[in-house]
Amino acid sequence: MNKGVGGPDINLAIQVILNCGQRVAGSCEGGNPTGAYAFVKQLSDEGKGIPYDTCMTYQALDGQCDFEDGVNPSGTCMTCATFGVPCVDVDKYPNATVAEYGSVSGEQQMMAEIYARGPIACGVNAMPLVNYTGGVYSDDRKFNFIDHEVSVVGWGVDDKTGQKYWMMRNSWGEYWGEMGWARIERGSNTLAIEKDCTWATFGSYTETNFPCYEGGENC
């Protein structure tokens, strides 16, 4: 999420979903974006929101919602002041909220949603992409099983072949594909990418924080 000229991009704390949203959003063993948005919407309705990742970094581990000792992922926001001092949880932290979320599918509906409100999360069958190295990926096989979520941010047409494609952002790192991205054939439900997508709009985000001490003693 981009804050514009007022500050840097916001990266939300995915780890909080793994710590506290497992019943709704899923876990490291599997989940879906609709559940993740539902969990953030629940936090939003409670007046909490989801924090920025600067106070709960992603560790790719299922954690505990109740804060423990800061050694394993737990809680919602924490600070570790210095070596040899226990980490503490922070109750007042910058956060963002979700206003609405819903589902969308099909080429035209997906294009309309992206044009109107930005990137969407889509499920795909990812196994054929493991060895993808570039170009517009096409596949005549019909995939119904979804095992991965990606971000579809736009669309285009290949200048040389005229092939339509989706611009897909993956989470596997910039060493993969086209600097972490892939172009997937558009209009044929390739890899089931047009089958199950989710959109969301944010409600608000913190621009002025409550200034906590570095050690969190006053928060």
Features:
elongated, 219 residues, alpha+beta, Cathepsin B, Chain A, 8-stranded mixed β-sheet, 16% helix, 12 strands, 2 domains, two-stranded antiparallel sheet
Give the termini distance in whole angstroms.
26 Å
SS class: alpha+beta
Q: What is the average of the pLDDT values?
A: 91
What is the CATH homology-level superfamily of the largest domain? Cysteine proteinases
How would a textbook summarize the main sheet?
Answer: 8 strands, mixed
Helix content: 10-25%
CATH architecture classification of the largest domain: Alpha-Beta Complex
Strand order of the largest sheet: 3-6-12-7-9-10-11-8
Coarse shape: elongated
The amount of beta strand, in percent, is 25-35%
Order of helices and strands: HHEEHEEEEHEEEEEE
Ranges where pLDDT stays below 50 over 5 or more residues in a row are: none
How many helical stretches?
Answer: 4
CATH class value of the largest domain: Alpha Beta
Number of strands: 12
Number of domains: 2
Short description:
With 219 residues, the chain is α+β, with helices and mostly antiparallel strands.
